[in-house]
User: Fold these one by one.
Assistant:
Number 1:
Amino acid sequence: PEIRALGWTTVPDDFNARFSAQARQYKYFIVQQCRPSSGSAEPAAASLNIERMREAAQHFLGEHDFRNFCKADVTAVKTFRRRVMSFSIDPVGVADSESGCQVFALNLRGTAFLWHQVRCMAAVLLMVGRGQEDPGIVHTLLDIVATPCKPQFTMAAEEPLLLYACDFQDLHFRRTERAVEAYQEVLYAALSRNLVASALVSSMLTRTYSDSKTPVIGEVAGVSRSHVLLSKRPCEPSVEERARRLGLPWPHDAQVGDAAIAE
């Protein structure tokens, strides 16, 4: 099952599992590829520049207006200001030496997050990692005076996103060793299945580099799609315009950390 209860605790009558959380921690997993050059066993340049992504991620730290890094919903959100307490990009213990792939995790912790905020943040960081955007684009998008409307871009995929932890004040969960061990067995089984699947794909990929290739006369190379800078793209309606269309006042009176729409 996708949901399991591993422990319990007593809570106040006004407790809300969503709005009583003081902080949330997300992980978003990405893959760094180092593909061999054509006709050579030497690794090519890495597919993502992790250091540039780390530089860009530092702009997220602190309290900012994240309207350009979410799916704006002016009917449910009173303020787009959120506080990111920490952000790091770290390698995890999953790698494949044959294919040159290394998994990294975007680790971020904040008081609350807006709808699709993490996936939008990840999408922009991946553009930076691929060399399509400068690390300073994060600062530019956080400046709602310079960038009052969100440029149109596709958010990162949902599958790599994990809500890793929530912090609650003065809550101490009771967990039985048996319940935890039973769930660990489920996770080990899932991990084993996915590691075997990864090994199968890696072996097939490695074989494609060892097979001989016959050049084809007149072969046409694939057409690459050029990247349009975020600063040059059409923009979505501003938050103020969205509210005006719905006949809602904006801004609402609110404090940072008001009811957030989670990922």
Number 2:
Amino acid sequence: IYFISGESLRAVSRAPALEGVQKRGYEVLFLVDPIDEYAAAKVQTYKGKPLVSVTQEGLHIDAADNETAAGEARELEAARERLAGLCDALQGALGDRVEKVVVSSRLASSPCTLVTSDHGWSANMERILKAQAMRDPATAMLFAGRRTLEVNPEHPIVEDLRRRVEGDVEDSTVKEVAHLLYETAAIDSGFTLDDPAAFSQRIHRMITLGLSIGDVQDAALVDGVDNDDHIRASAPGRSSLGVGAGALLGSGAAHEGGCDSTQHHDGSASTDSGGSDDAAS
């Protein structure tokens, strides 16, 4: 019996962790009352069937038949081998924010999700206990679930990151996107961000790059720190986009090195380097 707990029906019904279970045609219980979280921890089985949270690691979703299960197992193992380098790179970028990064079998359309360990608190239980007036921070740290980032091997974002890591394991774009993926997955999974300001800064960076506003060049936010040494004014009327803006936002019009490209009516293109060595660099 699959279930998911959360703050509201709207929140749990759109959780990424549901995708794989619902894709296989299973129904999922939505537990949205605070008492449900405590009851699910005590009621382990119902009529001989175990209660299984879809937001905890180690989720096994039964396939329609043995042949299908064997095929899915082979595909998952191949994906793990293909994405081993990316998982290591993402875990290195995130540090102690996650226990590990693994390939997921529970996702269908989302790039990633954040799940907890089998014996730790769920995201919803953390939320409930944080609201308690007499809560013990030491106990909260002890029982808080270890977080695991699961990535969707079929998602184009994950595939693009894999290619980037194969080209350069220290790619700053990968580090930037790693934190964005973690923070968006945390919100989708019902967790509270430890540093909302850092997340807001990253979103503002993406908006700036997407709109080609351009007053910032190569100002990647890595490890949640806005490095002022990388921020410098660009030339008037010029858009200088850094950290692989085109790849981050799906835009094919990212300017590199402060150069402007102009498309003429006859189909030819010309590039203005800015007329100085500084602009070309």
Number 3:
Amino acid sequence: AAAAFAEDLGLVPQLSAMDLASPAHYYLADLDRDKVASLERSRGEFAYRSASPLRPLLEIYRGFVAGRSYRGRVLPRFFLPDGWLITPLRTLSWLAPCPELSVLAVDWARAEPRAGGPSPGLGAAADLAVAGNVRGARRIALAQTLTAGQADDGSWGVTESTALVGERNAVACSAVGDFAAAGTRRIAVLYGALHMRGIGELLEANLGLEYAGRDALRVFSQPLAPPTVRAAAAKAALPALYVVVGTADWMALVGAVEASVASGSYDAWLFAGLYIARRVLLYYALARCIEWGSSLFPEADNASD
């Protein structure tokens, strides 16, 4: 599946391009699935692995009730916690037109540290899509998905403190320390984006390393679409079109529920459930287009150009 997906985007899977058969160059520093599951059970954590059939249900619950940034507060000086007021209102708002937009705004306001705005990749993907370059738009969307996969306060409960991320980070950093103590001077840690921030912090705290800068390795590039009046007009119309379609969806729900109640059937619950599921999935997709955390490259935050 990974090979077919990569080929469809004109890319090559990482495992197909790397020679992992050479033990002289690679060392596996990780926990196996059973060990992670055992740690999660001992710590009372939810088994949030991609193979778990309950993962989609947990994501829908967090999107529906708790939210992405459920630990933050909109009113930090208010005497009551935000959850007492915002969580019930947030839950009820899913029956309103385009609820994902208002809910996303609340989660943005609750983010700690403060979140940024929409990702630049969102506009770039829209430009390519308007220009008819669907593959290019999908490549930008893939890059956005990868860079958005960082562990932070809003990563759906998967933070550096969990066994799935934190314990595996500790094992990787321990292996780095062992090789460094043995005299190895050049060590590269290959891991997913969800682990990047935590591993960096552990390398600094436990091994005394200091961040010295970045040497970017270009995985793939995507030429951007040239700016045109058509693209600018389309992007300007997209938000209004989104709201119109969302409102029509809500009006269809109201009509279906009214007809169901009038006929005495229980289809209203099905219609409402399907509507909420659609909007939660849209919320989940839009949330990945927001720059929630800080930059992956600290020196870029202080750059003057």
Number 4:
Amino acid sequence: VLRFEDPPPEPPPLPAPVTWQIVCRVRMQPHGGSRMARCYLCNVMEVAPLGPAPQHFRQRWARPCKRCPYLWHRSCLEHRLGTCKCRGAIKMREADLICKGCGREFEPAQRFPESLPELLVATRLEWKWVLRRIFVMLLFLVWLHSLAEHYSMVEGICREIRVLMIMTAGMMSISVSQRFHQGVQKIWHTPNRWHYLKLFALVAVLAYLASLRVFKPARWAAAAAQWPWLAALHEAHSAVYSSMIGTVALSTISLVYVVTASGLIFCFWKTSLRVPTVLDVGHAHHDALKRSSSGCGLCQLGLCLDNDGM
């Protein structure tokens, strides 16, 4: 008999003396002061855990200038200032734009969506861009299907080719977008261009290996008979296609191709949209200097926030 019990309640907050003891101990550690921050909007003090700092596009804190002693949660500012419209002007009162500590105005900025509701709202607001990308993908899908029909391959291939065609059409739609071209131009004359070449090689190898699963060996038996150098490849393809282990291996490769293509399409979709936020002027210049040498994968691919292509 299974007994479903209610989840345990959340632990009560620590008493104030215990909280300040923890804060004092952290502050006494090397570089402990830099791990502590207090939001002057919600009056909450946080102690950052040990480890690497988050990426520059996922900063939790914001300040209007370098010398300002006040720190603000970026989420608190967004909630207070009403920054809920993507790629639009931040509508707020002048009193809400001014910092109470230094008197400077907060500067509007943009960030990536960090949750599914934000991603859906940003997608709904950019519906014209979504329709344009779907239209381009459908054009590539029709072109791929017409090629298969022209060469009488539709009847000689399995049903998995439909899914592979959709994934391939989505990847081809990304390759002709303005954002992709701007990203390539940003990093082409840097060592990071090898990331694109390696990624292209990976996708190409997976696509060619997945084609061995979707096409039957009988479709190119006549070509193998005419060209002797294709006979060995045809025999290997037939042996792998007819064996159980080969079928499982080729199906796994097709699944890996679909998962890889789906991940790339989702990454392109998420990083193409923006959500209004507040700029952290205190770290903006420092982040700009470290951006080229940082471990941010989006910066290395030229697809970070400085790429405003759609």
